[in-house]
C-alpha cells in the first residue's frame, strides 16, 4: 500500500475530478434509493386499497376506486422512471470524472517513466531487458490505472451506498436487515478468492502470450537463418509447444471465470429467500409491511454489486501495489552519470586521455588499462587493434556513456565529468559500430540529431557520406522509408546513412566506430576522401580493424588487450617494425590475394 502513496501527487493534481466524482456518486446513489421507497409506497397503497376495493363490492364506487388506484400507480411509475433517468445521468458524470482522471494519470505516469528511462545510463539497459522495460510502462501502468479508476470509483460507491442504505434499512427493521445482508460478506470473501485465482491465471496467460510473441518475433526476424539451415519444422514444433501451453492456461482460466457469475447469482438468491422468509414472518407479526419486503429486495440487489466489488477492489489494489512497487524500483534508480560542474561551452576538440583505466561494471572486464594519448583540435586519430582490445570502449568514454575508474579524460582542458552531458554529446558526431536506423524516412534519419536542418544541409551530409547517388536511385529519394514497412538497405548503405546522420549535425568531434567495415576498400577510400572536407577543423577518431582506414589519420594508436602498445604516424609505426607493421603487412597481403 505504501508504494501506491507515490500516486498521491497525481490524485492531488486531479483533485477536482475526484471531488466532483465522489459528489456525483452520492447523487446517483440517492436516485437509486428513491425507486425502492416508491415501490414500498406502491405495495402499501395496493394492500390498503384492496380492503377499500373489496368493501365496495357490488357498488358503482368500486369502478372509481380502480381509477384512483391506477392513476396513483402511474404517477409512482413515472417517478421511478425519472429517478432511473437521473441516476443514469449522474452515473455518466461519475465515469466522466473518475475514469477520465484515471486515464489522465495513466498518461502522465507513462510519460514520467519514459522520460526517466531516457536519463538512465547504458549499464541500466544492460541489466534490464527490453521486455521488462516495456512491461513496466504498459502492463504495470495499466494495473495501477485500475486502482486509480475503477477501484477508487467503486470504493467510494460502496462506502456512500453503505452509509446511505444500511442505517435506513436498520431504522425500518434491524432483524430483517441482519438476515437480508447475511450472505453478502460471504459473497465478498468468495469473490476475493475467485478474483485472486483469476488474476493469477491471467498473469500466467500473459506470460505465455509474451513468450509466444517473443518466439514468433525472433522466428520471423531470423527467418533467413531458419530457411538457410532448413529448421522450419523444428521452429513450427516449438511454436506448437508454446501454443499448447497457452491454450491449456486459457482453458484453466475459462473454468474459474465460469464459476464467477453462478456464485454471485446463488448468493443473491439466498439473500432474497432470507428476506422473503424472515420478512413474511414479520409481516404476520405486524412489524413490517409487505411493501418493506419489496423494498428490502431492491436494497439487497442494490448492495450486491458494491459488495461483490469489495473483493474485486481488494485484489485490484493488491495487484496495483505490486505493479507500483516495480515501477518505483525503476523510478528510484538514478543515473550516476551526472555533471559535476555543468560546463556548457562550444568545444574545440582538444582531447586528452591520461592514464585511463576502465572496467565494465556489469561484466567486470577491464577494457582500458593505463591508456594515454592526445589529439589536438582538428587532428584525426585512428585507433586500431584486435577484436576486444578496447577500441569501442574509448568511443564510449569520449561520449561519457560510462565513467572511468581512474585517470583523466579532458576535452579542451576540462574534465569530461564537468561538462553538461547534453551539451557535450550534442557536439559529438558518433557513428556506432552496430548501426541503428529508425523505421522512418532517410531524410528524418539523417536529420535525427537536429530536426531543424535544411534540405541542403541534409543533402550535403548525404553527399559527403557518398550516399547521394544511392538515394537518387530510390523512387522516393530522401522520402524513402527504411525498416519494417520500407526498403532494406545493404549493410554498407546503412553505415553510410549512419555516417551522414553523424556529420549532418556538424560535430566538433567525430567518432567513426568501425563505420566502414561493411564497405569495400575502394568505397572506404572514397568516403574517407570525401570526408576530408568535413574532418577539417574537427577532431576525428577513426576506430578500425583496417590499416587502410587508419593510414589517412594524423596519428595512430595501436591497442592490444586494453593497453596502448604503439602510437605515432603511419610512417613512424611502419618504421617501428612492431605490431602495427605486422598488421599492415598481413592486411596488404590479404588484399593482394583478393
Ligand atoms: N557493455 C559492455 N559491458 C561489459 N563488457 C563489455 C561491454 N562492451 C565491451 N565489453 C568488453 O570489453 C572489452 C573491450 O570491448 P570493446 O568493444 O571496446 O572492443 P573492440 O576493440 O571495440 O572490439 P571489436 O573490434 O570487436 O569491436 C571486451 O572484452 C568486451 O567483452
From TrEMBL:
InterPro entries: AAA+_ATPase (IPR003593), ABC1_TM_dom (IPR011527), ABC1_TM_sf (IPR036640), ABC_transporter-like_ATP-bd (IPR003439), ABC_transporter-like_CS (IPR017871), P-loop_NTPase (IPR027417), Type_1_exporter (IPR039421). The chain crosses the membrane at residues 20-43, 66-94, 151-170, 176-194, 259-284, 296-317. It comes from Ekhidna lutea. It is found in: Cell membrane. GO terms for molecular function: ABC-type oligopeptide transporter activity; ATP binding; ATP hydrolysis activity. This is ATP-binding cassette, subfamily B. One of its GO terms (cellular component) is plasma membrane. Coiled coil: none annotated. Its main location: membrane. Residues 19-319 form the ABC transmembrane type-1 domain.
